[in-house]
Amino acid sequence: MTSIDQNPSRAARLFHAVPVVGWIARDIAQGVENVFYALVIALTALVLAVKAWGIVAITMTALALVPVMFLWLIAISRP
């Protein structure tokens, strides 16, 4: 287990104050095994969205992940 910073920066406190994302980030900071639970929850939400709205849910998910993939490609291509 990693220890949680006792004096987090203002940005970290603001990030952890965001309702859903902050809770997940705080749980991941406490233990890395919580990442797998977050992935299962995200996959379940995607499956339920596809069941409710069809292919549009997959399209919107892919559209939302474009900036993430762009940053990922920049990160892995740096020397």
What would your notes on this structure say?
The chain has helices at residues 10-17, 19-30, 34-53, 55-77. With 79 residues, the chain is mainly α. The mean pLDDT is 86.
Give me the Rg, rounded: 16 Å
Helix amount: over 70%
Strand content: under 5%
What is the overall shape?
Answer: extended
Task: Give the rounded overall mean pLDDT.
Answer: 86
* Structural class by SSE content: mainly alpha
Q: Name the poorly predicted regions.
A: none
Count structural domains.
1
SSE succession: HHHH
Number of discrete helical segments: 4
Euclidean distance between termini CA atoms: 32 Å
The overall strand count is 0
Which SSEs are present, and which pair or pack?
Layout: H1 10-17, H2 19-30, H3 34-53, H4 55-77
Task: Compose a concise summary of this entry.
This protein has 79 residues and is mostly helical.
Keywords:
single chain; 79 residues; mainly alpha; 0% strand; extended
